């Protein structure tokens, strides 16, 4: 299930929901997914908002592969290893450590650790996570060659304290998409949607307002937008 596959599934879901020309918001790994969606459906995308995004193979943590992910996703032995691994204290320790690294130097919100353990520490969820890690580098290598084709509005938000090299990736994207608006925000890190939703809402608003102004007078919908987002 590559990022290209996931973009096609997302497009099908939005069509069934009768969501036309969405503004897509992608965080972290999903920065690549969001860009791929715009490449596959350029006439059906109003704009992109990329939050602490990963977009290029170079600089991605698993750029050269990941032995643990390969083991967990291997046929037969991978399922056995996953189930045995999740029975050990090491699994929770790994999840907690990853969580701390993902939020650092900011604090993990109350209750978030429990929700992560409940959802991430399941064989199917962990396997899918590891499959995504391995699928990223080849998909990013293929998609990044076409980033200059993207003409929709693009806003990129990255934290100055992000430990995952997203600032470098964002600066590279700005070279590939010169009209992309880049904001490097001081004193915040990687988990922008969870800790700074007001920044996300503001970015959505700034892309949405010109689109709303272009709606035909006879459009049957009234569109309201506020800090919570956009709704018809």
Automatic annotation (TrEMBL):
<dbReference type="InterPro" id="IPR000073">
    <property type="entry name" value="AB_hydrolase_1"/>
</dbReference>
<dbReference type="InterPro" id="IPR050266">
    <property type="entry name" value="AB_hydrolase_sf"/>
</dbReference>
<feature type="domain" description="AB hydrolase-1">
    <location>
        <begin position="6"/>
        <end position="203"/>
    </location>
</feature>
<dbReference type="Pfam" id="PF12697">
    <property type="entry name" value="Abhydrolase_6"/>
</dbReference>
<dbReference type="InterPro" id="IPR029058">
    <property type="entry name" value="AB_hydrolase_fold"/>
</dbReference>
<protein>
    <recommendedName>
        <fullName>AB hydrolase-1 domain-containing protein</fullName>
    </recommendedName>
</protein>
């Amino acid at each position: 299930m590559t990022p290209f596959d996931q973009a096609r599934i997302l497009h099908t879901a939005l069509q069934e929901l009768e969501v036309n020309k969405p503004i897509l918001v992608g965080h972290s790994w999903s920065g690549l997914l969001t860009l791929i969606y715009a490449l596959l459906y350029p006439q059906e995308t109003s704009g992109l908002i990329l939050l602490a995004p990963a977009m290029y193979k170079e600089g991605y943590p698993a750029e050269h592969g990941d032995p643990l992910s390969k083991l967990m996703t291997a046929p037969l032995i991978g399922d056995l290893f996953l189930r045995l691994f999740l029975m050990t204290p090491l699994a929770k320790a790994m999840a907690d450590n990853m969580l701390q690294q993902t939020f650092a130097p900011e604090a993990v919100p109350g209750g978030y650790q429990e929700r992560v353990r409940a959802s991430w520490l399941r064989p199917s969820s962990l396997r899918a996570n590891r499959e995504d890690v391995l699928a990223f580098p080849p998909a990013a290598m293929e998609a990044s060659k076409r980033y200059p084709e993207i003409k929709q509005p693009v806003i990129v938000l990255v934290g100055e304290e992000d430990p995952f090299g997203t600032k470098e990736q964002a600066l590279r994207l700005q070279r590939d998409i010169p009209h992309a608006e880049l904001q490097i925000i001081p004193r915040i890190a990687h988990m922008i949607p969870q800790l700074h939703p007001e920044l996300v809402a503001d970015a959505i608003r700034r892309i949405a307002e010109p689109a709303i102004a272009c709606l035909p007078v006879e459009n049957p919908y009234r569109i309201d937008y506020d800090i919570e987002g956009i709704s018809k």
